[in-house]
Amino acid sequence: MMSDNLFIILVLMTGAVIVLNLLVKSGLRRINLPPLVGYLCIGFGLGCLQNVGGVPGTPMDEIFTFLGKAGLVALLFRVGLESDLGALLHQLREASIVWWVNFSFSGILGYGCAYYLLGLPMIASLVVATAFTATSVGVSVAVWQDNGALSSPDGQLLIDVAELDDISAVVLMALLFALLPDLKQGASESGWAPALARQTAFFLVKLIGFGTLCYLFSRFVERRMTAFFRSLESRPDPMLSIVGIGFVIAALAAWFGFSLAIGAFFAGLVFSRDPQAVKMESSFLPVYDLLSPFFFIVIGLHIDPGVLRVAAGLGVVLALAAVVSKLASAGLPVFFTRGGRSALLIGASMVPRAEISMVIMENARALGDWAVTAPVFAAMVCVTLVTCVAGPLVVQSMLTRGLHQAKVK
Fold first, then answer.
1. Which of the pair, 184 or 279, is modelled with greater confidence?
2. pLDDT given at position 386
3. Of 5, 18, 249, 288, which is most buried with the most CB atoms under 10 A?
4. What is the pLDDT of residues 329-358, one digit of tens each?
């Protein structure tokens, strides 16, 4: 049992980190950098202090791990809440072509780079490939919004493709982690393909079943329940009730053999079809801003400083592949329909890998070295840092130059 003094120290640290998160977020946004860069650095700094004995070890790990899990649920809940499936279905033709080329090529290049070029094991290469397929649309969208370009045709296409990326990456992540135990056993045994096929079929049945339950809840229960909570109290209480239900759905999904991430994503989708629930999202933002940084802090906390030299070499190669994969796979289809400037803009906007990519790597790292080793994990954190800095800088430069040229004309 922890002593009162240790509790005081941990409460002091948590409060200090919350304040530091806000300062980092404000400072980095002033220079057009995503806050997650700072959150990762905060976590890495805490890990270094822990290694030299400057902060309590196990109790801090337990508290920050819980806060990190809560941050994971908040992150994926918001991704689901902001996914407009109805709008996607109406604009699917062009976006689906760009998405399919982008999704398949990014995954294939990620696997080829990890397995053939870097010599990583098959399982680690599959995890890296899955992380490569994701896109962090929030990192680039902020730049588009600041320049008043999000409502342009290119901006709308970007949102559609990125939403498809998010959905497909979450589903692929769920399938991958359902297959990993069989892949672990089959890596050294013959005849494991039928077992994987059975596991895939079983997973798809479970996913369809869980998705159906979520649809029924969304179709017949959600609006009445949201209206009930809205009648009880004024904002932000109704949104807090919705967030609580989202946490419950996430936990139930984990019990059913999925993960907190999948459950949180589906919970967001449940409420995304209700305009009233989405309008209340502004009430959710303080909760999101409080919890989501801890997910990235925990990732930084789990980076082993002793592997940074090896990880840097891996990270450079993977970061280069990550940039090329999105520029080529998202840019080329757009090039043939909208021209070179649109292709480069959308390709660069799709480069950042953050939330979902890090969810994939964090879940794989939690399984142990047989799934992802410490150097590979740290290397993919480097990929996140590089892509989340480089992508927005290129997009900002292009959008600013485009606005300047428009004013000159």
1. 184
2. 92
3. 249
4. 888 888 888 888 889 999 998 998 888 899
Is there a contact between 83 and 272 (Cβ–Cβ < 8 Å)? Answer: yes
Using the 8-state DSSP alphabet, how is residue 372 labeled? Answer: -
Query: In angstroms, rounded to a whole number, what is the distance separating the alpha carbons of residues 275 and 218?
Result: 12
Amino acid at 99: W
**Residues comprising the chain, all counted:** 409
Nearest to 352 by CA among 164, 141, 45, 105: 141
Supply φ then ψ for residue 277, to 5 degrees.
-65, -40
Average pLDDT value for the chain = 82
338 CB neighbour count, 10 Å cutoff: 16
The most distant pair of C-alpha atoms in the chain lies apart, rounded to whole Å, by: 70
DSSP 331: H
The amino acid present at 393, given as its one-letter code, is L
Distances (CA, A) of 36 to 202, 262, 380: 36, 21, 14
What percent of the chain clears pLDDT 90, i.e. is strictly above it? 22
CB 146 within 8 A of CB 140: no
CA angle 257, 262, 265 (to 5 degrees): 150
CA 393 to chain centre: 20
CA–CA dist 277, 331 (Å, integer) = 34
pLDDT digits (tens, 9 = 90+) for 355-391: 889 989 999 998 999 999 999 999 999 999 999 888 8
What is the C-alpha separation between 194 and 175, in angstroms, rounded? 16
* pTM, full prediction: 0.83
The CA distance from 102 to 106, in Å, is: 6
Domains of the chain, earliest start first: 4-408 (1.20.1530.20)
**CA-to-CA dists, residue 133 to 79, 329, 330, 348, 351, angstroms:** 16, 11, 11, 14, 10
